Description:
The protein has 75 residues and is mainly alpha-helical. It has one domain. 65% of the residues lie in helices and 8% in strands. It is built from three helices and two strands. The chain has helices at 10-22, 29-58, 69-74; strands at residues 60-62, 65-67. Strands 1-2 form a two-stranded antiparallel ribbon. The radius of gyration is 21 Å and the shape is elongated. The model has no long low-confidence stretch (mean pLDDT 82).
Amino acid sequence: xxxxxxxxxxxxxxxxxxxxxxQGAGKGAMxxxxxxxxxxxxxxxxxxxxxWEKIAEEGLELGGEDFxxxxxxxx
Length: 75
């Protein structure tokens, strides 16, 4: 298991801790919540990357003219 030290806004930390307290979260809950948030961020960014990779491979239609890597390199 990795250890990461981060600095976050005081208000965000306070709200986060309060939410954990309200839920009666036990030891380790903060780490679990942060891991879940990081995983979500990674997945969202991987999806975005795949969209751009798909456009790069398949090309993109711009106003009736196809645009792809091969044509871009010709210019």
